[in-house]
Amino acid sequence: MLHWLLLKIQSTEPQADALSDVLMAHGALSVSIEDAHADTLAEQAIFGEPGDPPPGIWQQNVVTAMLEADADIQTLLANVQAELGLDGLKYQLEQIEEQDWVRATQAQFDPIRVTDDLWIVPSWHQAPNADAINIVLDPGLAFGTGSHPTTHLCLSWLAQLPKPLLATANVLDYGCGSGILAIAAKKLGAQSATGVDIDTQAVIASRDNALNNQVDAIFYDSAEYLHEPFEIVVANILSSALMVLAPVIASSCKSGGKVALSGILDSQQEILLAHYATWFEMDAPIQQDGWVLLTGTRRCP
Ligand SMILES: C[S@@+](CC[C@H](N)C(=O)[O-])C[C@H]1O[C@@H](n2cnc3c(N)ncnc32)[C@H](O)[C@@H]1O
């Protein structure tokens, strides 16, 4: 049964916001803007870092309006053209059938293999390897489902740490998001795991996820962080935050302790390597899909 129409209009960066406003004013249920070249070699990557000005939008984009099935498209287009002074709009119309939206959303998330022995499994899936360490995690408001290369890099690093080292290690997950790294550390055998985050929602999500995984890990607001020393510190935060937090991360890591830093783009690794070399003996960077993991060992202060 037909339920909605999707009107997709080709646009350019200066027009896109005004076009969205006019579509909403004339009855669109929702409007989204996407890169016109998404999923092609010409795709334009846009990243925002805390403290930076808003990154803007794509030069060539597609503005998509979701409309009631009986919307009068010709009148809507005439209004858009008249109000914005645009001629010859290029557009496409698609029909959306009713479907089971919960099932459709869940179908996008499959179990993620980190190693043969470590998997991230959505709660509605059967674990592909029941004997593996399976972290049960559903997509939520906090970052960290395991699908992003930066999380994957940190998880792979935790998984390859020697078991005797982990068994005596207290692990700090700075910028815990969903709590995935702290939960993984504890499940892999760490003595203790603590996560802190600047975002209250992340702390709540981490506590819920730890409970769902029957993992005893502590999560709290980074504003209350006590600067305790840990044997292992993982921090998957964007590079600008890692630069600012470097003294905190260094003072949180015991002499001889290990650090793993991610959320770093290829182009940002040199400056971070140089900065963290002040406190750590740094290893060769590890790369995945344009993202970098930096690891090191804390020198004696
Ligand atoms: C990329 S997510 C990483 C989440 C998870 N650790 C993972 O590896 O998937 C970064 C997290 O760091 C948090 N964050 C950003 N800046 C921070 C800061 N200055 N102090 C503490 N947490 C911060 C964000 O709220 C976010 O939850």
TrEMBL record:
Entry's transmembrane regions: none
Catalysis: reaction(s): L-lysyl-[protein] + 3 S-adenosyl-L-methionine = N(6),N(6),N(6)-trimethyl-L-lysyl-[protein] + 3 S-adenosyl-L-homocysteine + 3 H(+)
Gene Ontology CC terms: cytosol; ribosome
GO molecular function annotations of the record: protein-lysine N-methyltransferase activity
One of the Pfam families matching this protein, by short name: PrmA
Amino acids binding S-adenosyl-L-methionine: 151, 175, 197, 236
Function noted in UniProt: Methylates ribosomal protein L11.
Annotated protein name in UniProt: Ribosomal protein L11 methyltransferase
Organism, scientific name: Methylophilus medardicus
